[in-house]
Amino acid sequence: MTITEVRVSLRDDAKLKAFVSITLDDAFVVRGLKIIQGKDRRPFVAMPSRKKKDGEYQDIAHPISQRMRDEMERAILAAYEQEKARAKAEELPKVPEPG
Questions:
Q1: Is 97 among the domain residues?
Q2: What's the number of domains the chain is made of?
Q3: Is-contact 75 82, C-beta < 8 A?
């Protein structure tokens, strides 16, 4: 299974840094992944989940193998860093061209 697309939607929140959607094999989309700022200041990927009646959260989609989880995290966090860099570059004031 190959991750063929990662879409990142940045958020300006203390903990929630982005929502993510991934496409697998150009055929299956998983929405609702989140990038959360961890207590150790490192971001991590949270799988889509729902809140149960007892207040606990349960993943509704998640990788079964550690290898796939690692691959997903690498791809998602790389796309997140690229999107942050792109957003930061767009915030820079435009320098007028001489002329």
A1: no
A2: 1
A3: no
